[in-house]
Amino acid sequence: MSQAEENLQSGASSQASQPASASSATTVPTSDNARHRRKIADLEEKLQVLESGQAVKKREIDYIMSQGRAIRRIVTLFDSIEDLIGENDRRCDREDDDHDMTIDQDRLQTGYIVLNNVLPWFHQKASNMEHDDYTHMLKKLRQGADGARGDDTSKLKSLVPDWVNRELKPNPPVDPEDKFCRGFTNNACGKLLCPTELDWNDPTVRAGIRDRADGFVVTEMSWPAFLYAGYTADQNNLEEGLFKSTLLVQAFKAIFTSPSSAKETHEEGFFWQESQNSCGTNHQDAKSLSSLNRIRILSIALHTVVSDLMAFWYIIVDFFERPPGRVARRNVDRLLAWWTRKVFGTSQRAELSDTAKAKMSVNALTLQRARLDDAQFDSE
What we know:
The protein has about 375 residues and is an all-alpha fold. It has 18 helices and no strands. Helix 5 (about 80-95) crosses helix 6 (about 105-120) and helix 13 crosses helix 16 (about 325-345).
């Protein structure tokens, strides 16, 4: 090989090695441990972002489920949320008046209105959501609603036997652990569940009810005795004392205030402070809350009493929401006011005169501070 060829090959080799040298010159050597630590830190940061997003999502789900607990208590006991929404959508699609609506349709629409009063965020949120998110929200609302109904029923199953034993003092007492000794097989329970038009003290009546003989079958068309004050009804005035029994008030308090508040129900106003703190509700809101909740306890208590619970539930709803006239409407309002006093107590604040309020220390201090400020201003 000539000298010229050797020089040419040497130059080519030198040029080929230049890129590698340049690449090495732009890289700062870093230890493996340092690079790994930075990668781990980056992955941990990404994991925190993912976990925080999941935590937010979980809080949202928990909130929706907790809101759903109100549905079976104060909106509707049986109707599905989808049926309530569907009825409202159907009415929005109609161009004519709503004069030809059925009673069932009116009940659904009333339920949807109450739902939006109880959950004021629901309508707008449901309207703006994607379908998958919407169905997921409804599912969580249902879970919350059904969970609350199960919790309430379980709570009452353990409390009602004790209340019956205290109220009627049966011998032998009702066994809270044995559900088979309750109902019409037990004389004390049978007396409370007996239709008011029948006399439980009559052996023929007791035998007929237990055997479901003709003329003694308990249906949704009879008011049971335990709904009445004193557990007796005046056949000439069946509205007197209806929905005023001690057991009903105890059941309501056990669920909506606390089980301890249900121990005493005879003195109105005795538990006002406790109920106010427990419910987070002031006396001004008490009537509306009592109105919304009026159906729930009655339905639970009658779960095994009548042959068609849903039909009887609608009878109770119509008693409150579809009175036949002004006198009946006034009686319903008085009944709800009675429930407000029994559950939330009475407040004497509205009965105070302006003079009495002005002498109270809070108002007196406010007036004194204003006078000091005026005196300072005048002196300057």
